[in-house]
Amino acid sequence: RVTEKLLAAVSQPLTIQRRAITPNISVGISLFPRDGRKSEVLLKNADIALYQAKASGRSTYRVYSREMRAGLEARRKMVDALSAAVANDRIEVAFQPQVSLRDGSHVGFEALARWRHNGTDVPPSDFIAGAEETGLIIDLGWRVMRKSVEMVRNLRRRELLAGTVAVNIAAAQLKQPEFPTMVQQLLDEHGLQPGDLEIELTENILLHKDGNRISEALQTF
Q1: How far is 203 from 190, CA to CA, in rounded Å?
Q2: In whole angstroms, what is the distance from residue 150 CA to residue 134 CA?
Q3: pLDDT digit string (tens) for 56-84?
Q4: CB 142 within 8 A of CB 129
Q5: What is the pTM of this model?
Q6: DSSP calls for 106-127
Q7: Which of 18, 32, 84, 190 is most exposed, with minimal Cβ within 10 Å?
Q8: CA–CA separation, 144 vs 149, rounded Å?
């Protein structure tokens, strides 16, 4: 009951410098003595519950359970394995053809990251989220982009039509000051033109808290 009152109170709209803002809050709860008898244990378990609340869409709360800890440990193992896969270039890229609705002709590809761990395909929604949370997304993103432009170059060397390759870009990449320069260098290295590469952005990037820096990077292109 206390948490629900807190959520309702914090989420009230307010105006700061003529700008309307609706705050939100996520809450993790652990209970004494069920979830621990020492403050450090209770805080750690509350933090695990908070992680689950944020993963559930934020602006909500979760109460700690043992199942949460097991799920968090499994996620940490997955992230460790992903880190090793990225470092050893074991991330594959699938190229999904794109065709024109007007006449059915081939116009390009969309690059899709794929990861197979212990003989099982890991859903992109799982490992991409883990990469974003840990900062691995920057290295992962560059590896996908490099493999994509290499694919276009190799097709053209065989005198095959490649079209434009579309690559998803994360907010963390766009926040790098050197991002536009590195993209241009990558294209130059493979003998491609800027129009050969399409940068795809999700809606969340446009609403990112560092929107101004991201906008500057996009305007550079």
Answers
A1: 30
A2: 27
A3: 877 899 999 988 888 778 888 999 999 99
A4: no
A5: 0.72
A6: EEEEEEEEEEEETTEEEPHHHH
A7: 18
A8: 9
pLDDT of residue 5: 93
- From the number of C-beta atoms within 10 Å of its C-beta (0-12, 13-18, 19+), residue 131 rates as buried
pLDDT, the chain, mean: 90
Evaluate whether 110 touches 94 at the Cβ level (below 8 Å): no
| End-to-end Cα, the chain, rounded Å | 51
Q: How many angstroms separate the Cα of 10 from the Cα of each of 4, 49, 61, 95?
A: 10, 19, 13, 45
> What pLDDT sits at residue 125?
87
Separation between Cα atoms, residue 10 and residue 58, nearest integer Å: 13
The residues, any chain, with a CB within 8 Å of residue 88's CB and separated by 6 or more, are: none
Give yes or no for a contact between 85 and 117, defined as CB atoms under 8 angstroms apart. yes
